[in-house]
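Researcher: Final request for today, and then I'll write up notes for the group meeting. The sequence and the SMILES for pyridoxal-5'-phosphate follow.
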Amino acid sequence: MAHLARRTWVPGPVEAHVQRLAEAAHHPSDQVADRIEALILRNAEIHDRECFNLNPATNVMNPKAEAMLARGLGSRPSLGYPGDKYEMGLEAIEAIEVIAAELAAEIFGASHAEIRVGSGALANLYGFMALTKPGDAIIAPSAAIGGHVTHHADGCAGLYGLTTHAAPVNADGYTVDLAALHALARQVRPKLITIGGSLNLFPHPVSEIRAIADGVGAYLLFDAAHQCGMIAGGIFPNPLSQGAHLVTMSTYKSLGGPAGGMIVTNDAAIAERLDAIAFPGMTANFDAAKSAALAVTLLDWRDHGRAYAAAMVDLARALSQELVGLGLPVFAADKGATRSHQFALEAAAFGGGQTAAKTLYRAGFLACGIGLPLPDVAGDMNGLRIGTPELVRRGVTPADAPALAALDKAGWIAPSALIVAEMGVRDPVPEGKTLSVEDERRYGKARIVFLRNAQAGDREAI
Ligand SMILES: Cc1ncc(COP(=O)(O)O)c(C=O)c1O
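Model: Predicted protein-pyridoxal-5'-phosphate complex:
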């Protein structure tokens, strides 16, 4: 029996799974350490060899940046202002911290950058704390246009005591309906309006939202957890120059950096509040290794950002058009599906977004569900999100899109047994197991391109 108590509030099958996994710790320590090593290798197989990663919420890092995470920085406490740290011996670490913040300010055209943030979710909480008080009303995008839970009752907005009103939806543009937003803002008098979500297909009308916010004395927060790569690469307009008071983001999605969060702003008063929220508020010491890795990531953006961002968009557009051509229900196909690095498929016909993602996984594709402004799918999400940040870094180009789309279609609509039969593999792949490298080799050009690139160590910066 696990030391971890069985949690009554967690769904039964999930908790049973957790209890089974916990048993792996019930062995002599060297065996447990070996098991962890084996799991790390297994993870690498899944992500580096067996699957195409179509999930835009993840990426591969520049190996140089990734290596910096294991260079002995992370366990060194670093608390307080550079030049006035509490602990001694931090002159090298504080220089890294300042370089990372300076690069963030440069890349995002900001006068202030807060890099000590642990995640995109915490970046939003910092933003809420800087701009609102518990009890205030805010307006945020609903899940139907990719709005994230952190802006809503179950997320940090609700936990902090904010009341969230869902912004009216403009289904056509996968964004907010400006006229209805204006009316809602006058009615609920929010202290903050947020825009930006987990799927962003077309630029959001940021200056128009800012005008609405100004009309009711509200701040505007742009959540660029996903869009930060498009912004850093200059493909989407910078929300700060369009009027957002601050921009929050994750650093490991389209940005391709270490796991973490970041906030940029051009408003000194807001920056002062964020600074106090970061320290002594919510972070005392923080991970200096992450700062180093982030700095190197941002150097990649400085030198290659426009090309990388453009390649992500080109591939997303090529792949979405191929899927349209194959008769798959790409959302907003009549508008070109996307101007971003992400697009979505309408998932009702496939049992829902998560169901479709599980089918795709058996065929060697990683993706997940998303909300679309379409009728609900009971017990599931109604969309499937696809993104290109990792494909591009692995060397996939628009020229590979037809083969990739054909694989994707086969993987999506055929049960795994059928895919396996088509491939001439004798033993069916058991549920939950992904295809082996040998299977992949037999399966198609796109996968071979993918493997060749991966094997050539083609994980250079951008
Ligand atoms: C729009 C949006 N905001 C915030 C977050 C939270 O970011 P993180 O996972 O880095 O905490 C996410 C995704 O996870 C997101 O999609």
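Model: The pocket of pyridoxal-5'-phosphate is lined by residues 57, 119-121, 124, 148, 150, 197-198, 223, 225-226, 250, 261 (CB under 6 Å). The longest strand covers residues 137-141.
Researcher: Thanks, that's everything.
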